[in-house]
Amino acid sequence: MMHQYVKTLENISGRYAPSRVLSFDMVHVFKALQPMKNRGLVSRDLLCQELDLREGTIKTMLKYLKMHDITKSTIARTKLTCKATTIFSELLSHIPIETNIPKYSTR
Between the N and C ends of the chain, which has fewer C-beta atoms within 10 Å? Predict the structure, then answer.
């Protein structure tokens, strides 16, 4: 099952036909899902800041996400579909939780 979800992320970040090389990859797609899951509706501007990508790249990524039934968009905001929530939850269940590494002390 996990492989299927990773393949979905790969498909979203892949080129269609003779299109230009994309400025985002599978990691950007996964990272874009995080604020959508945590906040519900997100703006393109927020995704630009979170992913450090330009607005045109975000627009293209959102278009690809919509083509794969991962997001739904209004004029100003984007949110995850039920399908995407399932995929994201499954991916998170297989990824170790980020941990804070304490700073090294010389004392």
Answer: C
Q: What is the reported pLDDT for 2?
A: 66
Domain 29-94 architecture: Orthogonal Bundle (1.10)
Which phi and psi angles does 103 have, rounded to 5°? Answer: -70, 145
Give the count of alpha carbons within 13 A of 102, CB side only. Answer: 3
pLDDT of residue 39: 93
Tokens coding 78: 């984007």
Give domain limits for the chain: 29-94
pLDDT higher than 80, residue 46: yes
